[in-house]
Design a protein that fits this description.
By secondary structure, this protein is mainly beta. It has two helices and 24 strands. 6% of the residues lie in helices and 40% in strands.
């Protein structure tokens, strides 16, 4: 009897192991045969990913944990010294001079007077890689809002060393047009939180000096073009109307005056979809593909994808690949992944790493099939 119970437990353990370990997947895509394998698992809604110089990964988990994932997939305990967040630790980025200063930047939902605000801060990764020391806020969205939605928020450094932080409209669309708020804006600051003197509203009283562009709904994708150095941004549309923009300073990207989609509650947004005084998206989707992170692929491992823009599809459960000619999108491929993808990043090995948006989220690696 005891032996039978033991055997049953062993069999159950084996069954649960095999259901948890996903086999490598071979995918035939338009331009390449690729293998998708699980690198790490057990991450609670992983959101942002930054590669340390030695190949380890700093990964945010949305409920508020920052962890380090080793090259062979071991997940560290949460790092100490990270900020208190309200259900929303979002992006992570390394300082461009990380090798010298060890600075790590985070975006998150900060609880504060009046509700919640998208915030960004930075701290120094300690030598043991167990904590961020001296973490402090470098930006906090003004004003806070009691609505717990549309927080953005990605981080990106442009080649001139400026730091961009993307915002959402906090589900208060009209505020995306109000230059006295950071809501529905793209923010540009120096890494220490100060405002660059050449920001568009520094000398104009009508706008907050940290604003770069406005009329955005909810930007969760930022990527710097490898050749031009220009920042590209992706935002969620309402019902339809997901967009890619190349945000220029002092430009109005239209939300909610115009959109390629309609309001979530079914109210139509009057057509036309753009106006001469507004900047239009370079590409858009209706119905929505609902993408979050994005990256330009520059590696040599998947030569057929070099120069493409890759997007992490949530509702579309796909890796979306756009081919480009300059700033024009010339083609689109959706590679079904079978689960929500939150982010896509290129590793130092030239392979692609995806984060799945699940309670038991994983890091997937996409490599060429040989
Ligand atoms: Ca727009």
């Amino acid at each position: 009897m005891i032996r039978l119970v033991v055997l049953t437990i062993v069999m159950l353990a084996a069954a649960s192991l095999s259901s948890r370990s996903q086999p490598n997947q071979l995918l035939t895509t338009e331009e390449a045969q690729v293998v998708v394998e699980t690198v790490a698992r057990g991450l609670d809604h992983p959101w942002g990913l930054a590669f340390l110089p030695d190949g380890r990964m700093l990964v945010t988990q949305q409920p508020g944990r920052l962890t380090i994932v080793s090259v062979d997939g071991r997940v560290s305990p949460p790092l100490a010294g990270t900020p208190r967040v309200h259900g929303g630790l979002m992006d992570v980025a390394l300082d461009p001079a990380f090798s010298e200063n060890h600075l790590v930047y985070l975006t998150y939902v900060a609880p504060c007077a009046g509700g919640w605000a998208t915030a960004a801060g930075r701290g120094r990764l300690n030598t043991a890689a167990t904590a961020l020391d001296d973490f402090h806020v470098i930006f906090q969205q003004q004003p806070a809002s009691p609505i717990q939605d549309h927080f953005g928020s990605r981080l990106a450094f442009t080649p001139d060393g400026k730091l961009f932080i993307s915002m959402g409209d906090r589900d208060e669309p009209d505020r995306a047009q109000d230059l006295a708020t950071d809501i529905g804006k793209l923010i540009r600051i120096n890494p220490d939180g100060s405002v660059p003197p050449n920001n568009p509203f520094v000398r104009h009283a009508e706008g907050r000096p940290e604003i770069w562009s406005y009329g955005h709904r909810n930007i969760q994708g930022l990527a710097v073009h490898s050749d031009t150095g220009a920042l590209w941004a992706g935002e969620f549309g309402p019902t339809g109307g997901d967009e890619i923009n190349i945000p220029e300073p002092d430009c109005n990207y239209g939300w909610p005056l115009v959109s390629w989609g309609d309001h979530k509650d079914g109210r139509p947004i009057p057509r036309p979809t753009t106006r001469p005084d507004l900047a239009d998206a370079i590409y858009h989707w209706t119905p929505s593909v609902s993408f979050s992170g994005m990256t330009f692929y520059t590696g040599s491992a998947l030569p057929a994808w070099r120069g493409n823009l890759l997007l992490a599809g949530l509702a579309s459960q796909a890796l979306i690949r756009l081919t480009l000619a300059g700033s024009r999108v010339t083609g689109e491929e959706r590679i079904p992944m079978g689960e929500r993808i939150r982010h896509v990043a290129q590793g130092p090995d030239g392979l692609l790493y995806l984060l799945t948006d699940e309670n038991e989220g994983r890091i997937l690696r996409v490599s060429p099939a040989h």
